[in-house]
Each structure stands twice: as C-alpha cells, then as structure tokens.
Specification:
By secondary structure, this protein is an all-alpha fold. The chain has a single domain, classed as Rhomboid-like (Rhomboid-like fold, Up-down Bundle). The chain is globular, with a radius of gyration of 19 Å. The relative contact order is 0.15.
C-alpha cells in the first residue's frame, strides 16, 4: 500500500498512500451510464418543477415538447457567455446534465447508453468518467468562445465519447482498430452534418466535445496500452467530486445568493 513502486509493473506509488484501494472499490462499483442517466433525469425533473407553467406552453415543434423555462435552466447551471463573464465556471460542468426538452434528453441518453459501455470496455471505468467530463467541458468552452449563446446538454460529451473511440481505432490500427475508426468516425460525421439541418443545435459544442474526447483519450491511454491504475481512479473520483461541487455552487448561486 505504501510501496514506492509496484513490484510487478514498476508503477510509482501504486497504493497512492492508501487511497488507491478505496478509489478502486468505489469506481469499480460505478455504472457510469446509469449514473449519468439518473443525474440527467433528476436535473430535468427539477427544471420542470421549478417553473411548471413553462410546460403548459404549446410547443412549436415536437423538439420543444415539455421544455423547461429559461429561468429554471439558468438557476440550475446553464452555461453561455453571460455565465462565462460572471465567473460561473461550474456551469461548464452542470450544463452537461441539463436538457431543453423531452426529446433532447431522450436522444442524448440513448447515445450515452450506447457509447459509454464501449468506451468503458476499451479504456476502463475510471478513464470513461474523465473522458466524458472533459469532453463536455471542452464543448462548452469552445461554444462560449465561438458563439456565446446560452447552451445545455450532454451532446458535447457524447461527441467526446465518439472522439475517444476514433482515437482508440487510430491508435490501435490493424483490422479491428480500422473497423472501430471507420464506424465511430462515420457516426460522428453523420451526426455533425445532421446538426446543421436542425434548429438550435450547438455545433460548436459538438466539435469541441469531439476534439476534447479525442485528446483526452490520447492523454489517458487505452486498456491495451496499460491497465487502469490507482491514479486513474483517484482522477475519476476527483472528477465526480468536482461535479458534485459544481451543482452545489449552481444551487447556491441560484437560490441562496
């Protein structure tokens, strides 16, 4: 637990001064796709309950059905240039879990349930947490810089998962790697092009999320290059902790400030 290096692989501080085994147990039990689903559903229900009158407004299209109000979304941590200038850094994280309509959250969560297990299988559960969050943040950073519009949703993080799979396929090579690269690269390209034909789609966020996921995947490495270590699990726990802090700050800023 306190060894300077692993006797087998040479990893430095494998026990992380006692925190490694704890992080391994906690992250090993985490079903991240389910956790994201629960967080998004709870946040969506909260946004509806904060202003129930908003859902009574007749939708302009099926994509506007059961849409929370703008005020409710800002209260819970929607991001954008205004939030950026106000110093509300936590909205870069909280906005990942907020959605603007019933179809918005359904589509995003279907993609999370589709992609997260694949990324977890190739990278591991701890690195999945980091890639997902970094991707969502990167998407909103680019969106805030490039357009500045108010924005929400997990689609940037979803594109980041696609980016991670593309990075894996290109890094691995061979028949399997090439197949992964082509499949997920085609999905990303089609989804990105499709976004230009739909209203109110944050294509800047999608592009930033894809690049963020691609670079994050290269930085953390995939499971065929090295197995997950204690430091990966601690980083995942820190990411989860930062997400909890972000929501606490959003609620404090929205209700108590």
């Amino acid at each position: 637990m306190d060894a300077d290096a692993c006797f087998y692989c040479g990893a430095r501080r494998p026990g992380l001064w006692g925190f490694g085994p704890l992080a391994s147990r906690l992250i090993g039990r985490l079903d991240f796709a389910r956790a994201v689903t629960i967080a998004c559903v709870v946040a969506y229900i909260a946004s509806i309950l904060l202003d129930p009158r908003a859902v009574m407004t007749p939708p302009r299209s099926p994509f506007d059905m059961l849409s929370p109000s703008f005020r409710a979304l800002v209260t819970l941590g929607m991001t954008g240039e205004v939030a950026w200038r106000a110093g509300w850094w936590w909205t870069l994280i909280t906005a990942i879990y907020l959605h603007g309509s019933l179809l918005h959250i359904v589509f995003n969560l279907l993609w999370v349930r589709q992609l997260a297990p694949a990324v977890e299988e190739l990278f591991g559960p701890a690195r999945l947490v980091v890639i997902f969050t970094v991707s969502g943040v990167a998407g909103f950073v680019l969106s805030n810089v490039a357009s500045g519009e108010w924005t929400i949703g997990a689609s940037g993080a979803v594109f980041g998962l696609l980016g991670a799979m593309v990075a894996y396929g290109r890094s691995r090579g061979g028949t399997f790697g090439t197949a992964v690269f082509r499949q997920y690269g085609q999905w990303a390209a089609l989804m990105f092009i499709f976004g230009f034909f739909m209203g109110r789609v944050n294509n800047w966020g999608h592009a930033g999320g894809f690049v963020g996921g691609y670079l994050a995947a290269l930085a953390v490495g995939h499971g065929e290059r090295r197995t997950e270590r204690g430091l990966d699990r601690v980083a995942a726990l820190a990411t989860v902790g930062l997400t909890v802090v972000a929501f606490a700050l959003a609620l404090w800023n929205g209700f108590l400030r």
